[in-house]
Design brief:
It contains 15 helices and four strands. The protein is α+β, with helices and mostly antiparallel strands and 395 residues long. It has two domains: 70-171, no CATH class; 180-393, MetI-like fold (Orthogonal Bundle), CATH 1.10.3720.10. A hairpin with a 2-residue loop joins strand 1 (80-83) and strand 2 (86-101). It is globular.
Length: 395
């Protein structure tokens, strides 16, 4: 077979694969062609994995229980393989000594002992952690839940003596590296729960209002407008005052996630409703109705799939919005607080001038927050273009 015939056969197979491919396969093929979105997707996957496996990747408990009293406000410790004393196949750090100095107005000064090495070991045993943890302390004894599952005590790395702090420590001696990984997980969990609640409400309310119209649409739009007019700052201030101090960190987290979800659905609901109002008069909808399809089937299988590109991008953009909202609340003291580790709680420390001048490693969680939000934005933009069949023809 000649080269030309082989090429024609391959082109024909590609055309057949294109016309027989599912919507998901077409979206994935177009998404892979966007290099920026693919890089952002890999970064996002790494951040998600780092957050999910945060207890295993963290050498120390991120709460006050795992603080290093001998290394408060300590600078990051970078493992090395060689120095003037020779090469080592196992990475190591140096032992440190802390003392107050007159030259620095009696601030703590760290002195490094380069003759004393602390070697890094892998898969060490330390504090216990549970991947399935439920600790609710709601009013009434019947709502108190304390459950632990999948408990382990193995961590990726540690030192043979003393402690290692890759991102340094804060003013109480807590490991910033461990706190950052746990903060990513907390922000992911808050965003996922909030987006799920708002997404379900938006699909139900927007879908029903757009399909039925009339009186049903008017009533649902009144509810939507009422929710949209709720001012955010007074709501969050009232929420912070409502939360009892005796609530556990998990209960506070769950409550804040629900509130974020309950106030985040109106925008998507109105857009879904507008789209369905214009699409419900199309011939394919009439054909489905004449075939005896139920309204829920028509909305789920015919109307909403025609709006897939916008729903996808709205979800991807709503996720960092939820994370930013939680971060802002925690930053101003209205959201999650210690012992919960969130990106907003960690960013509270960077607002002090003393940190900018003397403890710059406090800004490391800020870099993770920026990368986290940008990754979601670029992935969402790539998915929007991939889900839009006409994006390649726009000029």
């Amino acid at each position: 077979m000649s080269t030309t015939a082989t090429k024609k056969l391959e082109d024909q197979k590609l055309k057949e694969a294109y016309f027989t491919a599912s919507q998901g396969q077409l979206i994935w093929t177009r998404f892979k062609g966007n290099k920026t979105a693919m890089i952002a997707a890999w970064i996002l996957i790494l951040l998600i994995l780092a957050g999910f496996f945060a207890p295993f990747l963290s050498p120390y408990d991120p709460t006050i229980a795992g603080r290093d009293t001998e290394y408060e406000n300590g600078a990051p410790q970078i493992p090395k393989f060689w120095d003037e004393n020779g090469f080592s196949a196992r990475p190591f750090i140096y032992s440190v000594e802390r003392e107050r100095s007159i030259k620095t107005n009696f601030r703590w000064v760290t002195k490094i002992n380069r003759d004393e090495r602390r070697y890094v070991h892998y898969f060490v045993k330390d504090w216990q952690y549970s991947y399935l943890k439920i600790d609710w302390n709601l009013p009434g004894k019947m709502f108190d839940i304390d459950f632990r599952g999948f408990t382990f005590d193995t961590h990726l790395f540690g030192t043979d003596e003393g402690k290692i702090h890759l991102f340094g420590t804060d003013q109480s001696g807590k490991d910033i590296y461990s706190r950052t990984l746990h903060a990513i997980y907390t922000s992911l969990a808050v965003g996922a729960l909030g987006v799920f609640i708002s997404f379900v409400l938006a699909l139900i309310i927007g879908g029903v209002a757009g399909y039925f119209g009339g009186l049903v649409d008017s009533i649902l739009q009144m509810i939507t407008d009422a929710v949209r007019t709720i001012p955010a700052i007074p709501l969050f201030m009232a929420m912070a005052a409502f939360i009892p101090d005796e609530w556990s960190s998990e209960t506070r987290f769950f409550f804040i996630s629900i509130v974020l979800g309950l106030v985040g659905w109106p925008t998507l609901a109105r857009r879904i409703r507008t789209h369905l109002l214009t699409e419900r008069s199309q011939e394919y909808v009439l054909a489905a109705e004449l075939s005896g399809a139920s309204p829920s089937h028509i909305i789920r299988r015919h109307l909403l799939p025609s709006f897939t590109s916008y729903i996808i991008v709205d979800l991807m953009i709503s996720f960092p919005y939820m994370v930013r909202t939680e971060t802002a609340l925690s930053f101003v003291g209205l959201g999650l607080k210690d012992p919960v580790n969130s990106l907003g709680a960690l960013m509270q420390n960077v607002s002090k001038a003393d940190v900018l001048l003397n403890y710059q490693w406090y800004f490391i969680p800020v870099l993770f927050f920026i990368a986290f939000v940008l990754a979601f934005v670029f992935v969402g933009d790539g998915l929007r273009d991939a889900a839009d069949p006409y994006s390649g023809t726009k000029k």
